[in-house]
Amino acid sequence: MSGGVDSSTVAAMLRAQGYELVGLTMQLWNQRRLPGTHPEGEPAQGRCCSIDDVYDARHVAQKLGIPYYVVNQEDRFEQDVVKPFVAEYLSGRTPIPCSLCNNHLKFDQLLRTARQIGAEYIATGHYARNEWDEGRQRWVLKRPADKAKDQTYFLFGLTQEQLSRTMFPLGEMHKPAVREEARNQGLTVLAEKPDSQEICFVPNGDYKQFLDAYLEEQGEPLPDTSGELVTTSGEVIGHHNGIHNFTIGQRKGLGVATGNALYVVEIRGDRREVVVGDAEHLMSRTLHARNMNWIAIPELHEAIRVEAKIRHRHQPASATVEPEGEDGVLVTFDEPQRSITPGQAVVFYQGDVVVGGGWIV
After folding, report:
1. Torsion angle of alpha carbons 29, 34, 35, 38, nearest 10°?
2. DSSP string, 335-348
3. H-helix or E-strand spanning residue 205
4. What is the reported pLDDT for 45?
5. Are residues 96 and 121 located together in one domain of the fold?
6. Into how many domains does the chain fold?
7. Counting Cβ atoms within 10 Å, is residue 112 exposed (0-12), middle (13-18) or buried (19+)?
8. Is 217 exposed, middle or buried (0-12, 13-18, 19+ CB in 10 A)?
9. Which of 95, 120, 161, 238 is deepest in the core (most CB within 10 A)?
10. What is the pLDDT of residues 321-337, one digit of tens each?
11. Which residue in the list 48, 49, 98, 101 is annotated as catalytic?
12. Are residues 214 and 202 in contact, defined by beta-carbon separation less than 8 angstroms?
């Protein structure tokens, strides 16, 4: 129970259907840490996993008459999500902490807790579907009915065991219907609650400020990742103060003026170089990915056709994916794609079915 309208509505729906429920909220990040990173120096309210969300979740549990517990996972969250997030940025990659959080905590640790209290399943407010596929003899993850709220991109790391013990009651519903159901269940205030957008530990969206504040808190100096700003032809046109200040596709804040629009097209972490070029240099037909997780198939033995998604808001594009090395793939798109970014995930679909995914390198 995150305290939002989605998980709250799921709890009310399942309670009405006669399920025996226990409400769990995961305490992942102390919102009072790093106060300088909050808007106007104050702890952020109404963000993902805020203290307000805990109060809302507890209120819903009381209204439904179900037991409710807050499970502290701050240490695990810091080790498995925050520290990798910092390391990735300092290496010149652009991480997606929400996928790490789902893989390591919201499903892995939550299922462990469920077993400890004797629960058979966990139910969440994610917009996704899962079902047993008799033909494949596997559990499959599928896109939801409401494609605008599709969260399967962040769930590509789920295992067969996790899928077999998870319920996604909102998978067949659209968001307006969920809000209406919340009103019908007497959750009027939450029915109008806006969706959270920001990463819970970066409440003001300023990743650079967070990196500085976090490293200072840890007593670690900010590593010197400064270096040269170079063109795609190798010409040095300036210097930058750290590769962690840049992401692929970035146009503003480059610190150089050439008369033409320039974009960050590559970050070479080993050489501390930021490569800039024209918009056409952002386009690519291939990518490499590692640390794969396959859902609809046990493993990849030969090339298959898929629709590949390279970021959450990316429209899946037709591609061929083939095995490469021990735990990698080569993805070749039919048409060039813009701003393929190391550190992000690539997720493969066949229709609504999530075939699997991995991390772009």
Report:
1. -70
2. EEEE---TTSEEEE
3. none
4. 47
5. yes
6. 3
7. exposed
8. exposed
9. 95
10. 999 999 999 999 999 99
11. 101
12. no
User: Which amino acid appears at position 7 of this protein?
Assistant: S
At position 253, the amino acid (one-letter code) is: G
Within-domain flag for 149: no
Whether residues 32 and 117 share a domain: the answer is yes
Q: Which domain holds residue 240?
A: 227-277
- Looking at residue 280, its pLDDT comes to 96
DSSP run (H or E) holding 211: helix 207-217
Q: How far apart are CA 357 and CA 343, in angstroms?
A: 13
pLDDT band at 48 (very low <50, low <70, confident <90, very high): low
Amino acid code (one letter) for 162: Q
pLDDT in tens, 278-299: 999 999 999 999 999 999 999 9
User: What token pair was written down for 245?
Assistant: 């200040």
Q: Which of 355, 294, 309 is nearest to 147 (CA)?
A: 309
Q: Give catalytic status of residue 98 as yes or no.
A: no
Rounded distance between C-alpha atoms, residue 234 and residue 247, angstroms? 19
Judgement on whether residues 300 and 177 belong to the same structural domain of the protein? no
